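Duplicate of #3305? Posting structure anyway:
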């Protein structure tokens, strides 16, 4: 005890003080874990929604492009067949 700094007994930490602090810290950590878990689930849901909407938009654009390309190919085929028929 003679090695303690010259302070009053109110400034000395007891095992009970440490246990109270450990319990409070455990509760804080549990709240933080629950909050972080909830936040991560919200982020995952938002990302899934954005990805799903992005994929639907990409599908629509690809479908539109495919239809346009098929239309050009069919028109070209009709013209070629017509040209071959007229040559025959």
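Output from current build:
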């Amino acid at each position: 005890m003679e090695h303690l700094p010259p302070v009053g007994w109110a400034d000395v930490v007891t095992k009970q003080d440490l246990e109270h602090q450990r319990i409070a810290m455990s509760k804080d950590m549990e709240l933080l874990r629950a909050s972080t878990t909830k936040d991560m689930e919200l982020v995952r849901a938002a990302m899934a929604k954005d990805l799903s909407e992005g994929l639907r938009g990409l599908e629509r654009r690809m479908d539109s492009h495919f239809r346009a390309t098929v239309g050009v190919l069919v028109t070209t085929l009709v013209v070629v067949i017509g040209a071959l028929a007229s040559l025959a």
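Confirmed duplicate; merging threads. The helical segments are 15-87. The chain has a mean pLDDT of 90.
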